[in-house]
C-alpha cells in the first residue's frame, strides 16, 4: 500500500486517538494495541517517513496514558489480571516462546548428559542430595525429601526462593538478555538431569505423578520469568524507532509487570509442594487431576485467553 493511501485510510482514527481524555482502561488498551499495529506496519514499509515518527510519538503518548501513576481504583487490580497481564503475554509472545524452547532444548540436553555420564547428576544436583535420594530409594521412600520439613516452613521457603529466582532471571536480562538465557539454561539442565535420574532408577512415571503436582505451575512460571527477562534485554538490544533509554524503560516496566503477575502462581506451586506433594501415596487420579488442571490453566491464561482478548479488542475497533 502506498503511504499516502495508508495515511488517508487511518488519519481520522489517529486524530481520535490523540484525545487521551478517556479514563476507561479497556478503551486505552484497545487504542494502544491498534496504534502499535499501525506503527509496526509503518516501520516495515515506510521506516524513515514522517508517518512512522508520528505514530511512534502517538504510541508513546498512549503508553504513558495507560501506565502513568494515578490514584488506584478498586477495580485496578482486577483489570491487571483481566486485561493488562494477558495483553502483555500476547504482545511479548515471541519472547515467551523463545524462553520455552530454550528451556525444552536444554532440558533434553540435561537428560541426555545424565544418561551418558553417570557422574553428571552429582555434578548438577550435588553429592549430598543424590546420596540422600539413593538412601530414600533404598528405604522404599524415593520422594522422602518432600516430607522432611514442616508443611508451612517448606511452603514459605519454596515460595520465597522461587520468587527470588524469577526476579533474578528478570533483572539479569539487563545484560543484553545473556544473563536471563544463562539462568534458563541452568534451570533447564538441572530439571532434565533431575528428571532422568528417576527414570534411570525405574521411577519415571512415579516421579511425574509426584514432582509435577507442583512442578507444572512452578516450571511454567520459571519459563515465563525467563520471557520477562528477554523483554527487558531485548528492549535494550532492539529499541526500534524509540530512543534506547525510552525503549529500556518500557521493556523494564512491562517485564516487571509480568514477573509480579507470576507471584500468585509461585505461591500456589509452593502450597502444592509444601502441603500436597508430600502425600506420595495419594491416588493416581488425584495427582493426574492436579497436574492436568494446572497445565490447562497455564495454557489457557498465557496462550489462549490473550489471543482471544486481542481478537476481541480488534473486532471492537473495527465496528
Automatic annotation (TrEMBL):
It comes from the Bacteria. Pfam families: SpoIIM. The chain crosses the membrane at residues 96-116, 163-184, 196-213, 219-238, 258-276, 282-304. Keywords: Membrane, Transmembrane, Transmembrane helix. PANTHER family: SLR1478 PROTEIN (PTHR35337). This is Stage II sporulation protein M. It comes from Arcticibacter tournemirensis.
Amino acid at each position: 500500500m502506498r503511504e499516502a493511501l495508508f495515511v488517508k485510510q487511518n488519519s481520522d482514527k489517529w486524530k481520535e486517538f490523540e484525545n487521551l481524555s478517556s479514563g476507561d482502561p479497556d478503551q486505552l488498551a484497545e487504542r494502544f494495541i491498534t496504534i502499535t499495529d499501525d506503527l509496526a506496519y509503518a516501520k516495515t514499509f515506510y521506516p524513515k517517513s514522517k508517518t512512522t515518527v508520528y505514530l511512534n510519538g502517538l504510541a508513546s503518548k498512549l503508553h504513558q496514558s495507560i501506565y502513568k501513576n494515578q490514584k488506584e481504583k478498586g477495580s485496578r487490580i482486577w483489570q491487571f489480571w483481566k486485561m493488562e497481564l494477558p495483553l502483555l503475554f500476547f504482545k511479548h509472545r515471541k519472547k515467551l516462546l523463545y524462553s520455552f524452547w530454550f528451556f525444552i532444548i536444554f532440558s533434553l540436553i540435561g537428560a541426555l548428559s545424565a544418561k551418558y555420564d553417570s557422574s553428571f547428576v552429582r555434578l548438577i544436583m550435588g553429592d549430598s542430595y543424590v546420596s540422600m535420594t539413593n538412601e530414600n530409594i533404598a528405604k522404599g521412600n524415593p520422594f522422602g525429601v518432600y516430607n522432611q520439613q514442616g508443611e508451612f516452613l517448606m511452603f514459605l521457603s519454596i515460595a520465597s526462593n522461587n520468587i527470588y529466582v524469577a526476579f533474578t532471571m528478570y533483572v539479569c536480562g539487563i545484560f543484553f538478555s545473556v544473563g536471563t538465557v544463562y539462568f534458563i539454561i541452568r534451570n533447564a539442565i538441572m530439571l532434565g538431569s533431575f528428571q532422568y535420574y528417576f527414570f534411570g532408577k525405574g521411577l519415571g512415571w512415579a516421579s511425574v505423578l509426584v514432582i509435577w503436582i507442583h512442578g507444572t505451575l512452578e516450571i511454567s512460571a520459571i519459563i515465563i520469568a525467563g520471557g520477562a527477562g528477554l523483554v527487558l534485554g531485548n528492549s535494550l538490544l532492539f529499541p526500534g524507532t524509540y530512543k534506547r533509554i525510552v525503549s529500556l524503560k518500557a521493556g523494564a516496566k512491562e517485564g516487571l509487570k509480568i514477573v509480579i503477575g507470576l507471584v500468585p502462581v509461585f505461591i500456589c506451586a509452593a502450597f502444592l509442594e509444601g502441603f500436597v506433594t508430600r502425600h506420595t501415596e495419594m491416588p493416581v487420579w488425584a495427582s493426574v487431576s492436579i497436574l492436568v488442571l494446572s497445565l490447562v490453566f497455564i495454557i489457557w491464561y498465557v496462550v489462549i485467553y490473550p489471543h482471544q482478548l486481542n481478537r476481541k479488542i480488534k473486532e471492537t475497533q473495527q465496528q
